């Protein structure tokens, strides 16, 4: 799915997201410089991998939160976590590095990727996210996030970082 088809699919759910197009961004710092005035929590999205069990985890965390992979692995019952490759990003979420987003779960038809969110992100009024590309940022209100996950029959595990 691409950005336009995503917007159309969300519209069928009654979800219409606002945001802005911008130059490509690859880091939270770059995104903040271009869209820092948009409402919503700025987040970092990491696709993580536990190789022993071929487990994939999409972590959505406040961009200011430090992520300790050893502590996170323990909290999630994993032996060891590492960052997933660009190939796994493309294969499972249909996005490239810099465009990782919870919206990419629409591309995970086989439901191979688990969603894990920092509790404060889950409780935020809205969050900023990329619409499958790193050249735009949309504001995703809490109610729309929950509606999206329900439409995808997805659950979220909450963690404290």
Automatic annotation (TrEMBL):
This is Prolyl-tRNA synthetase associated domain-containing protein. InterPro entries: ProX/PRXD1, YbaK/aa-tRNA-synt-asso_dom_sf, YbaK/aa-tRNA-synth-assoc-dom. Residues 22-147 form the YbaK/aminoacyl-tRNA synthetase-associated domain. Belongs to the PRORSD1 family. It comes from the Bacteria. GO terms for molecular function: aminoacyl-tRNA deacylase activity. SUPFAM superfamilies: YbaK/ProRS associated domain (SSF55826).
